[in-house]
Amino acid sequence: MTGDTARPRTADPELACPIAPVVDIVFSRWTTPILWALNEYGRQRFVELERRLTTITAKVLTQRLRQLERDGLVVRTYHPEVPPRVEYEISELGRSLAPLFATLADWSTANLGKVDQARLDYDAQARAGSRRS
Amino acid sequence: MTGDTARPRTADPELACPIAPVVDIVFSRWTTPILWALNEYGRQRFVELERRLTTITAKVLTQRLRQLERDGLVVRTYHPEVPPRVEYEISELGRSLAPLFATLADWSTANLGKVDQARLDYDAQARAGSRRS
DNA sequence: GCCGTTACTTTCCTCTAGGTACCTACTATA
DNA sequence: TATAGTAGGTACCTAGAGGAAAGTAACGGC
């Protein structure tokens, strides 16, 4: 129970970087796929999300959803029914990330190829032995 | 030597999320502070970066810089002088991330307070015992 | 009376990112 | 002679994130 909702806290390495806190909140592991799924497909139940993000485990999904709920990016609705039913949806605050994600998607389509090419070049150079015998 | 330049590869959990590859490249640990420092203060030597990102270790800094170099976001210049001198600067591709970082900074100033408030509310509710028991 | 379902929780285990510490080559300087 | 300084490389170790699997409550159905 201790520290369940506590953020891992990556210390203060980001002192030099004003965007570090946001990165910590928005781009920690699994958060982008979850937010994307909630934003794209609307309100969903736990199992729907679990099935959509095929490789996530229930434990981690719970952790991330709690974190996102605590940060106000996701709204959780619990229905105390016979088989419990819980629904998750993106909050207004979470939806305000949309333009950011759009910018990211734009950069992706425009430059991801360049990154791949850079990697090919780098690996070719490395294999050619230009760096260290 | 095996897998030094190889990306950790977070498997394929991000199948549902088109921006996942970019997140992997741009927002993996330490990359944003490094890119920010290079973009803000221009070309720098290894030790300058090390001192600026106060808590990073030399080993990790080397790893991240290699990774960024391989991805074409950072340019490394080696001067084979008496005491070795290496300079790092942001590449054109890296500089193309500037608007993205700007969007991020904007969202930060606008909404970081709301996240903090949401956390306070959530923690207060949790302490009030409304959830379980 | 047992199974199935949901949304977890808990326990145990593994794996690896990252930290510590020490090593390199080369020279200037004291 | 010894020490400092640069830009790492390398070996060892630990903490912690994340995975697997089982447990839980509460009820409906067979």
From TrEMBL, chains A, B:
Concerning InterPro entries, the annotation shows: HTH_HxlR, WH-like_DNA-bd_sf, WH_DNA-bd_sf
Q: Where is the signal peptide?
A: none
Molecular function terms in GO for this entry?
DNA binding
Q: Gene3D superfamilies, per this entry?
A: Winged helix-like DNA-binding domain superfamily/Winged helix DNA-binding domain (1.10.10.10)
UniProt keywords (A-Z) are: DNA-binding, Transcription, Transcription regulation
The answer on whether this UniProt entry bears the keyword Transcription reads yes
Q: Where is the HTH hxlR-type domain?
A: 17-116
Q: Would I find Phosphoprotein among this entry's keywords?
A: no
* PANTHER family found in the cross-reference section: TRANSCRIPTIONAL REGULATOR, MARR FAMILY (PTHR33204)
Name this polypeptide is given:
Transcriptional regulator
